[in-house]
Amino acid sequence: MPGLFITFEGPEGSGKSTHSNIVAEQLRARGFEVVRGRDPGGTPTGEAVRDILQHDAAGEPIAPETEILLFAASRAQLVQRVIKPALARGAAVICDRFIDSTTAYQGYGRGFDIERVLGLNEWATGGLNPDVTVLMDLDVGLGFDRIHRRNLDAGQGEDRFEREERSFHERVRAGYLQLAERWPERFHIVKSDESMEIVQAAVWRAVAPLLSHVAGDGHAG
Ligand code: TMP
Asked: Which residues line ligand 1 (CB under 6 A)?
């Protein structure tokens, strides 16, 4: 596909949306068409699924099998309705979370067989992989400190995943690092406990080399 597909991944509170927003603005300023996505969500159907998954909106416990299929369903809709059309016209797509979240959370976190999860991801996306995945890595405890502050400021409670025990989130983080080892060319690990400027520069170093793929003003520096 002619466009550029960038995903941001990482444990809770690792700064994904802050830094994906910054990259989106940086690319727009350089003349690129930027399409934003979030997973789960990013389409009307996906947002409805997100509500069920994060806030138990259906009012009953969600079985792990249901959970993983709902994530896959939301992603299939996002790929078909948003990501593929944008890439086809040469846009840069920047998505908060994607396939690797399912492998990390449902695979490593919940314990589903990793190869089967990878197969489900591939089926749901038609084999579409990001060109680059920025893994924002952060100590689980620090991430939760950030989440608690954010929830407090927003006057909201924890969502279904934030309520999971610490060991779940430790498995998720370790799982992400294993994925980065498995696909070192796609993954760029950014330590997100540094200053804003250092993290921002590290994220840009991961993204900039790929900019020649997409139509823009061509200034990657
Ligand atoms: P977030 O978009 O605010 O990070 O919230 C999404 C939550 O859903 C987050 O806790 C991670 C979780 N998640 C999964 O468990 N599996 C997935 O495939 C995706 C995309 C997210």
From this structure: 12, 38-40, 71, 96-97, 101-102, 105-106, 161
Q: Which domains does the chain have, with CATH numbers?
A: 4-212 (3.40.50.300)
Give 83-125 pLDDT, tens digit per residue: 999 999 999 999 999 999 999 999 999 999 999 999 999 999 9
Nearest-CA neighbor of 28 among 96, 95, 93?
93
**Cα-to-centroid distance, 72 and ligand 1 (Å):** 11
Q: For residue 212, is pLDDT > 80?
A: no
